[in-house]
Amino acid sequence: MGASQLWRWRALTQEGVIEHGTIWAASRQAACDRLMKKAIFPLSLSRCWLQKRWRPEHACDLFYQLAVLLGAGLTLAQSLPLLTEQHPAPQWRALLVSLAEDLNDGSTFSAALQKWPDVFSPLAIAMMKTGELTGKLEVCCRQLAEQQKRQRQLTAKVKKALRYPLLVLTLAMGVVMAMVTLVLPEFAAIYKTFNTPLPLLTQGVIRFAAFIQEWALLLTAALLLPVIAMHSLRGHPGWQRLIQKIVLRLPVVRTLVRGQKLSHIFTVLSLTQQAGIAFLEGLESTQATLENRFWQDRLAEMRERITQGATIWSSLDDSVFTPLCIQLVRTGEASGSLDLMLANLARHHHEQTFQQADSLAAILEPLLLIVTGLIIGTLVIAMYLPIFHLGDAISMG
C-alpha cells in the first residue's frame, strides 16, 4: 500500500477558510507535503489510531455507485469527489481523495487501485483495466459489484447453515452444565437425608455431576485449547490445507463448502471471460480472490497444466471439480462458448448451494430441538424421579 498511516488534518486554504479532513500518508512530513501541494496550509496534524478495517461491502458499494454515476453521464474524476462527500468511514474518504489525486496526476484508475492491494482484489484491478481498454468501465463496475454481492450472500448463507447447529448445541450444553453443576447438587443433598435407594438413572446423573465438578478446570481447558489453537492457526497455509481436506470428506459439510467454492470460482472466471480477459489471466485473478490455500493450490496446478499445453477441461482436478464441471467446460471449450458454460456452472452451483443450505437448516432445526429436548428431559426426569418414592421413604421413617 502506498500510504500506511491515516492522518487527521486541520488546515487553512488560500482564501482563509479553515477546513479539516483525513489523508493517507506514510509519515507526518509526507502528509504535510501532500496538503501543501494542494495549496492547503496545515494548522494541526494528528495521527488516527483507528485500525484499517476495510470491509468488503464498502468496496462493493463503491463499484456499484461508480456504475450508477458513470451511467448517468458523469466522468470518473467527477464521480470520486461525490462519493467522498457521502462516505461515512474516514479511512474510505481519505482513500477516495487519494484515488482522485492520482487521476488528476494522469494515472489510470486501475493503476490507482493497484496501490491499495489490501482493499482492492486483483480481480477488481483486472476488471477496471479491461473497462478502460474497452471503454466499458460502467459495465465492468456493475458486473464486479453484482458478483461480489452474490458471493457475499452465498458465503453468509453457507456459514449460517454450518454455524446454526454449533450454536444450538453450545446453548444446550450450557444449559446442561448449569443444571448439572447448580441444580443437581441441591437435589442430591436433599435425597441423602432419606434412607432409600435412588433410581439408577438418578445415580448415574449424580455421578456425572460429581465428575464434572471434580474435573471442571481440566474439561474447560480441553474444550478451549482446540478452539484457541484453531483461531491462532487459521491463517497458516498448512493448517488451511489440512482443514479443507477434512471438511471435503465430511458428508453434509462437503457439499455446502465445495458448492460455495465452485460457485465463486466459476462466477469469477465467467466474469473475466465476458470482460475479454485472457483465461490464464482470469484464472490468476480468481486464484487471488480465494482465501484458502487449498483452493489456491488447485487453481495453481490448473494454470501450470494449461501452460504446459493441456486443455482447460483436462486440467480440472476431478477430486474437487464435479463431473458436471468437467463435461460442461469440455463442451464450452470445444464449441467456443466457454464463457456461457462458465456462467451456467456458476449459476448452477449458486442455486444448488442455496437450496442445500435451506434444506439443511430445515432438517437440523427440528432434529436439534429433539436432541436438546431429550438431553434436558433426561436430566429433569433424573432429578424428579426420586420424588415419587419419597412417600414410601417418609412412611418407613
From TrEMBL:
Family that this chain belongs to: Belongs to the GSP F family.
Record's protein name: Protein transport protein HofC
Keyword hit for Transmembrane: yes
Residue span, Type II secretion system protein GspF domain: 64-185, 267-386
Chief subcellular location: membrane
Top-level division of the source organism's lineage: Bacteria
Gene3D superfamilies assigned: Type II secretion system (T2SS), domain F (1.20.81.30)
UniProt keyword list: Cell inner membrane, Cell membrane, Membrane, Transmembrane, Transmembrane helix, Transport
Topology of the protein relative to the lipid bilayer: Multi-pass membrane protein
Membrane spanning residue stretches: 161-184, 204-225, 367-387
Family annotation (InterPro entries): GspF/PilC, T2SS_GspF/T4SS_PilC_CS, T2SS_GspF_dom, T2SS_GspF_sf
Keyword Transcription regulation: no
Subcellular location(s) per record: Cell inner membrane
